[in-house]
Write a structure and sequence with these properties.
Blueprint: E1 2-10, E2 13-17, E3 25-29, H1 32-41, E4 46-51, H2 52-57, H3 63-72, E5 76-80, H4 86-94, E6 99-102, H5 104-108, H6 110-119, E7 124-131, E8 134-137, E9 142-147, H7 148-157, E10 163-167, H8 179-188, E11 193-196, H9 202-209, E12 216-219, H10 221-225, H11 230-238
Parallel strand pairs: 1-4, 1-12, 4-5, 5-6, 6-7, 7-10, 10-11, 11-12
Antiparallel strand pairs: 1-2, 2-3, 7-8, 8-9
């Protein structure tokens, strides 16, 4: 299992949102490059980037910061937030983003997942955000009637290289991950699953390690608040 630090970008700053709410912002740094370098120095080999302005508006607003991070660190970068057409995917992969994350568009235009995954095998993953097992879209503003596990299975069929599954009721709450929901997702789909949302302490990492086949876990607020130390978490996982 890989431990993946998150850098959420809003207005060029590193922030976290409480349960994805645009009006519940905590800013942690005005230097995203410095933050990326910090995570690399703590042994990260993959960084999860989210353009929150893009998630809410449908268009990337933090490209300068993203480019600067790409130029500064020599690890894999995955990026989500406002990626909604093949032209944007072409541009992002062309600038060195290793994997793009499709969220809202996977629900609205599933054919884009198939097209992009065919053109960039292994580089297109689908982010599924859910509340009570139902998919939320457009920056978590709208909760749909779509079942999260069924969407994940459909996206795997379309060629998605992985699923990032976020329980939005836990995200940013420091309340611990939804282990049962994550285990159900891993068991349901035949593609790598990355857990996101709720990690608050090292014991949460231990609990996630009990999910056989879980590919990775994204953590953000716990790192910024200092309740989880990235290098320690990575060493714990490597020793498990």
């Amino acid at each position: 299992m890989r431990i993946i630090p998150a850098i959420d970008l809003k207005g060029g700053q590193c922030v976290r949102l409480l349960q994805g709410r645009e009006d519940a912002v905590t800013s942690y740094s005005n230097d995203p490059v410095e933050m990326a370098e910090r995570w690399v120095n703590e042994d990260a080999d993959l960084i999860h980037l989210v353009d929150l302005d893009g998630a809410f508006s449908g268009d990337q607003k933090n490209l300068d910061s993203i480019k600067a991070i790409r130029n500064a660190v020599d690890v894999e970068l995955e990026l989500g937030g406002g990626i909604r057409d093949i032209e944007r995917i072409n541009m992002l992969i062309g600038m060195g983003i290793n994997r793009v994350i499709l969220g809202t568009v996977a629900v609205e235009k599933p054919e884009l997942v198939e097209k992009a995954a065919s053109k960039y095998p292994g580089q297109v993953i689908v982010g599924i955000d859910a509340k009570d097992g139902r998919v939320a879209v457009k920056g978590w503003v709208e909760v749909t009637s779509t079942d999260a596990k069924e969407l994940a299975a459909a996206m795997a069929q379309q060629g998605a290289a992985g699923i990032i599954y976020t329980d939005i009721s836990r995200d940013g709450m420091m309340a611990g991950p939804n282990i049962s929901a994550m285990r159900e997702m891993v068991d349901y789909v035949d593609t790598p699953v990355i857990a996101s949302g709720g990690v608050s302490k090292m014991e949460d990492i231990d609990r996630l390690l009990t999910i056989d086949g879980l590919w990775g876990v994204i953590t953000g607020k716990a790192l910024y608040e200092g309740t989880v130390k990235l290098s320690e978490a990575i060493q714990k996982v490597k020793g498990s």
